[in-house]
C-alpha cells in the first residue's frame, strides 16, 4: 500500500512539475534564440516564477461559457485534453523500478491514451458554438487521422526489434546500434509526435492568423490554462517516449542506480529540440501537411517496419 501511494504521488508531482519546467524552458530558450531577454522579473532570478505568475493570472480571470455553446461538452473538453497525459506519464519508466505502472503492454497503453488527448481539442471545437472553433476542430481531426498512422508504425518498429510491448523491456533490449538501425523511425516518430500535439510547424488548428485560436478561441481563465498545460505535458510524454524507444531510456555510463539521471537528461534534450523546431520552421499549409504525412512519413515508416522485421528474422 505504501509503495502504491509513493508511486501515485510521484506521478502526480512529475505531472505537475515537468510541464512547468518545459514551459519555462520554452520561454527562455525561445528568447535567447530570438536575441531577446524573455521573462526576467517574476521571481527575480531570470523570471523563474513566470509560469507561476501566469497560473495565478489565469485563476483570477473569469471563465466564460458562450451562450451558443454546448455547456457540458465545452466544460469537459479541457479535462479530456489533459488527463490522458497524466495516465501516459505513469507508464513511462525513468529507470528500473522507477515507474508509476510497469505494464506488459505499456507502449500500446501510452499510444492509446495520447490519441484520446486529442479528443479534447475536438470537443472544444464542437462545443464552443463558434465557426472558427469548429474549423479548428476539423483541422485537428484531419491532422490526427493523417499522423496517427506513421506515429504508431514507427513505434511498432521498435517493439518488433525489442520483441516486447513493455516500455521497460524495450529500454532493457536497446542497443547503441539501434541509433542507426532505427534512425528513420526516430525521425518519423518525432515529426508525427509534433503533429499529434499540434506543435509548430504543425499548429494549423490553432493558427491565430487564420482561425483566431482554433478550438480554444472561446476559452478563458483556468480552462484555457489547462489546454496550455496539456500541450506542455504532451511534450514531456513525447520526449519520454522518444527517450525510451529510440535513445535507450536510462542507458548510459555508470550503474543503473543513476539511470534516472540519464533519462531526465534525454527527456530534457528532446524537449529542447521540440522548442528549437518551433522557433526554426514556419507553419505548413494544409496541402503540405497532408503530403508530408501520406507521401513521406507513411512510406518511410512502412519501410522501417519491413526492414526491422527482416533484420529480426535474419540476424536475431
Automatic annotation (TrEMBL):
Its EC number is 7.1.1.-. Keywords: Cell membrane, Membrane, NAD, Quinone, Translocase, Transmembrane, Transmembrane helix, Ubiquinone. It catalyses: a quinone + NADH + 5 H(+)(in) = a quinol + NAD(+) + 4 H(+)(out). Its main location: membrane. Pfam families: NADHdh. GO terms for molecular function: NADH dehydrogenase activity; oxidoreductase activity, acting on NAD(P)H, quinone or similar compound as acceptor; quinone binding. Belongs to the complex I subunit 1 family. NDH-1 shuttles electrons from NADH, via FMN and iron-sulfur (Fe-S) centers, to quinones in the respiratory chain. The immediate electron acceptor for the enzyme in this species is believed to be ubiquinone. Couples the redox reaction to proton translocation (for every two electrons transferred, four hydrogen ions are translocated across the cytoplasmic membrane), and thus conserves the redox energy in a proton gradient. This subunit may bind ubiquinone. This is NADH-quinone oxidoreductase subunit H. The gene is nuoH.
Amino acid at each position: 500500500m505504501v509503495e502504491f501511494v509513493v508511486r501515485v504521488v510521484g506521478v502526480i508531482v512529475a505531472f505537475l512539475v515537468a510541464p512547468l519546467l518545459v514551459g519555462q524552458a520554452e520561454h527562455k530558450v525561445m528568447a535567447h534564440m530570438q536575441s531577446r531577454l524573455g521573462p526576467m522579473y517574476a521571481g527575480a532570478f531570470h523570471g523563474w516564477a513566470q509560469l507561476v505568475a501566469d497560473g495565478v493570472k489565469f485563476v483570477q480571470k473569469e471563465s466564460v461559457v458562450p451562450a451558443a455553446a454546448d455547456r457540458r461538452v465545452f466544460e469537459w473538453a479541457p479535462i479530456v485534453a489533459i488527463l490522458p497525459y497524466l495516465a501516459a506519464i505513469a507508464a513511462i519508466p525513468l529507470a528500473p523500478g522507477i515507474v508509476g505502472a510497469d505494464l506488459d503492454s505499456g507502449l500500446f497503453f501510452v499510444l492509446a491514451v495520447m490519441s484520446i488527448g486529442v479528443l479534447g481539442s475536438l470537443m472544444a471545437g464542437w462545443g464552443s458554438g463558434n465557426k472558427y472553433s469548429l474549423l479548428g476542430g476539423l483541422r485537428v481531426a484531419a491532422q490526427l487521422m493523417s499522423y496517427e498512422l506513421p506515429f504508431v508504425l514507427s513505434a511498432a518498429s521498435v517493439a518488433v526489434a525489442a520483441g516486447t510491448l513493455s516500455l521497460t523491456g524495450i529500454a532493457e533490449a536497446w542497443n547503441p546500434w539501434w541509433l542507426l538501425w532505427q534512425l528513420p523511425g526516430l525521425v518519423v516518430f518525432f515529426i508525427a509526435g509534433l503533429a499529434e500535439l499540434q506543435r509548430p510547424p504543425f499548429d494549423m488548428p490553432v493558427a491565430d492568423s487564420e482561425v483566431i485560436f482554433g478550438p480554444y478561441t472561446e476559452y478563458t481563465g483556468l480552462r484555457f490554462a489547462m489546454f496550455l498545460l496539456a500541450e506542455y505535458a504532451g511534450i514531456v510524454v513525447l520526449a519520454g517516449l522518444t527517450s525510451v524507444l529510440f535513445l535507450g531510456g536510462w542507458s548510459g555510463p555508470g550503474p543503473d542506480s543513476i539511470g534516472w539521471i540519464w533519462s531526465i537528461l534525454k527527456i530534457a534534450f528532446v524537449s529542447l529540440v521540440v522548442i528549437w523546431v518551433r522557433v526554426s520552421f514556419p507553419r505548413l499549409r494544409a496541402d503540405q501537411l497532408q503530403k508530408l504525412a501520406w507521401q513521406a512519413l507513411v512510406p518511410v515508416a512502412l519501410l522501417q517496419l519491413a526492414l526491422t522485421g527482416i533484420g529480426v528474422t535474419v540476424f536475431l
